[in-house]
Amino acid sequence: MHQNEIIAFNHELLAWFQQNGRDLPWRRTKNPYYIWVSEVMLQQTQVDTVKPYYDRFITDFATPEALADAPEQSVLKMWEGLGYYSRARNLQQGVREVVEKYDGKLPDDKKKLLELHGIGPYTAGALLSIAFGQPEPAIDGNVMRVMSRVFMIDADIAKAKSKKQFEEVVGKLIAEANPSAFNQALMDLGAMICRPKRPDCPNCPVRRQCKAYSARVQEKYPVKSRPKKATVRCYAIVLVQDQLGRYLIEQRTDSGLLAGFWQFPMVECETNSDLLPAAFRKLASVERLDFHYIHRFSHLVWDLTLYRVDQAIDLPAGVARKWVAVDEFERYPFPVPHLKVIDWLKNLRMNT
DNA sequence: AACACGGGGGC
DNA sequence: GCCCCAGTGTT
């Protein structure tokens, strides 16, 4: 792209953004900590999903010190349902580092930002441009899609090494005068116009600079290889009550999938089998309940069936467990599939 | 470089 | 159903 085209691209993009850019809660603040929170929540998560979480989060954890001092469980509870919970743990760890090392003030230095836990190339670029006005690219899937079309870049955006190409082109394009608006304009363009399917090219402010549009091949971009298929795991979810009517729940380990979350005990079953789980076979009373739920993670599928048993079955040792009343579930972070179980239980109670 | 890591929404 | 999404940490 020639210099005059670069200037035109910037001009058209920023003019469009001024007219059509979204009014988002985290665009109404200059507080780098709030912008940081929003950027972490927005990783792999869409704007409309994030909004209510963001509002609650900055209300309850209004300062870096407040988040640093909070129990991890309360942070996970706040993040409950948003997914990718390591983001929440990493954010809190990063914030604790900022409180320790930088007196609670986010550094405006790329190297220092990248040293913080939970801040990678994207978030560092977003913070440097949006919070600190520095001309740094912030390359995400959105920006890669836009640039793959504008420049007809054939690199597979699913591959890590492809990002370098996109950094280079954005680095040449980025508006030195207003990098914050530039990066956010690209994000809005990607979300509103340059969508994955059926991009709205006739309304695109930079269609005249877009190679794919000129060649009418915009739907061929971006090039992205398919991820491998998710594996399926079958579980029995165990409902067991004590004499006070409380339910047994357990805490997942502090690493791996849904680390630190609470759940009803889960026993893995044979896949594609109607056989009762082996752990249940010697019990006097086992009732299969009218609750079956398929939960899809990106890399894994849970096939869940709910059972009520009359006594605690043999469960693995070394796991934290508690008897908890239905009214007290809200104190604990649960993964969504187990929130569905809680909903089911509450409906059951209402109808009986 | 590949993999692990959640959940919701669009069509 | 399948694909998408404002990525980072670990190995």
From TrEMBL:
Signal peptide: none annotated. Pfam families: HHH, HhH-GPD, NUDIX_4. It catalyses: Hydrolyzes free adenine bases from 7,8-dihydro-8-oxoguanine:adenine mismatched double-stranded DNA, leaving an apurinic site. The keyword Oxidoreductase does not apply. Its EC number is 3.2.2.31. Binds 1 [4Fe-4S] cluster. Gene3D superfamilies: Helix-hairpin-Helix base-excision DNA repair enzymes (C-terminal), Hypothetical protein, domain 2, Nucleoside Triphosphate Pyrophosphohydrolase. Its cofactor is [4Fe-4S] cluster. One of its GO terms (molecular function) is hydrolase activity, acting on glycosyl bonds. Keywords: 4Fe-4S, DNA damage, DNA repair, Glycosidase, Hydrolase, Iron, Iron-sulfur, Metal-binding. The keyword Metal-binding applies. Residues 41-192 form the HhH-GPD domain. NCBIfam families: mutY. Adenine glycosylase active on G-A mispairs. Belongs to the Nth/MutY family. This is Adenine DNA glycosylase. It comes from Sporolactobacillus spathodeae.
